[in-house]
Amino acid sequence: MKIEYCLALLVLAVLVWLGWFNVPFWHVGAVFRGKMTSNMVHSQVSGFVLAGGKSVRMGQDKAALELNGRTLLEHALAAVRGVCRDVAVLGRYDRYGALAPTYEDIFPGCGPLGGIHAALSNSQTEFNLIIAVDTPFLASGFLAYLAERAVASGAVVTTPEIDDYTQPLCTVYSLDFLPIAEKAIKAGNYKITPLFPRNQTLVIKEQELRGFAFAADMFENLNTPEDMDRARRRFSRVDA
Hints:
The protein has helices spanning 3-18, 28-33, 72-81, 93-96, 112-122, 140-153, 177-186, 206-211, 225-239, and strands spanning 45-50, 66-67, 70-71, 87-90, 102-103, 127-132, 157-162, 165-166, 170-174, 201-204. It is an alpha/beta fold.
């Protein structure tokens, strides 16, 4: 093990001990390395990829667009499969059913909240990681960290916050969020973040993410052809 790694790990451990980062002390080494281990794949956490959007600005189904040799849906499924044993797609079965178990909205036309409701309605686990199909730069290491924090805290919602905005489509929801979502849908309220229960939501601040070398730009989502072009250039730089 390199001396630089040991020193950096020691500094992070001390910062956690001093309370600078509100994380379980024993997570420090695994998170800092950014490597998956078998005990980080949670039988307690199901994974879902939200692929049912209209893709209006993109002009075609985003899930089927190719980036670096794989579709966006394949990128998202790979990221979630690095963390969760049970993984499914939220969207139309006739489009995505060949790739993974697929659940359609119980309440169609309600936006992403309808997908979250469908996920929780079909889940067999207490905690459920839900990501959007159009965020191909999310790292499995970060998603594992998010899942660890959710399970350890027992929060109804565990969500990252970037630039003072929470990320409801990269969040772990417990089954306790299901009645909240269903009540809101029936009332015609489809915005997700206002539904987060104030005292039962764990918000992972950007400072905490930076402390473990998780880059904020991994949350970049792709909505337009220009976004796709930029993402392809970004992948080409990584591969160079």
